[in-house]
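Query structure, 177 tokens:
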């Protein structure tokens, strides 16, 4: 079992926000123009219930979250990308890594319901795994999800993550890079 830590350290992250592109997806820096997309996801019961206690009720919460994500990047503590579906040219979710130590980071993600089951998140996750290994030189990524969140558990397993342990209603996964 791998020890999990909430302590955040910095590693070498470039000053220029890294955009990542795949066939259908563009991972880019969030901007305040994305506030409605973020608000919609974080106020949707089927999305927020997987990682928050209560839904967003005000658009200002989305604005503050975007500012917080961008601040993490400036402090070199993590990177949160907007997930744009190229054909629709809209933000449909986010994917992030938060640095735990010099060798590992924790990954998190959310995706608009209308895009579930289309392979969008899997495509984004593959690119973030590759970036973490090649650019950040990380040795492992960790993720936790509710055990009842079958979609998230399957996404992680299908992308090489291995179940590390279960505690309470949470499953903890890890992938060695």
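Result returned for the query:
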């Amino acid at each position: 079992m791998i020890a999990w830590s909430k302590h955040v350290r910095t590693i070498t992250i470039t000053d220029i926000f890294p955009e990542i592109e795949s066939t259908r997806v563009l991972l880019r820096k969030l901007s305040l123009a994305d506030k409605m997309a973020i608000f919609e996801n974080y106020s949707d019961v089927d999305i927020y219930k997987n990682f928050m206690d209560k839904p967003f009720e005000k658009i200002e919460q989305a604005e503050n979250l975007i500012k917080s994500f961008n601040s993490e990047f400036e402090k070199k503590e993590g990177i949160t990308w907007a997930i744009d579906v190229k054909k629709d040219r809209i933000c449909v979710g986010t994917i992030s890594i938060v640095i735990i130590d010099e060798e590992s980071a924790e990954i998190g993600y959310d995706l608009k319901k209308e895009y579930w089951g289309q392979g969008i998140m899997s495509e984004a996750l593959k690119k973030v795994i590759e970036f973490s290994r090649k650019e950040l030189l990380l040795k492992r990524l960790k993720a936790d999800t509710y055990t009842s969140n079958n979609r998230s558990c399957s996404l992680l397993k299908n992308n090489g993550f291995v179940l590390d342990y279960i505690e309470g209603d949470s499953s903890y996964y890890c992938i060695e890079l």
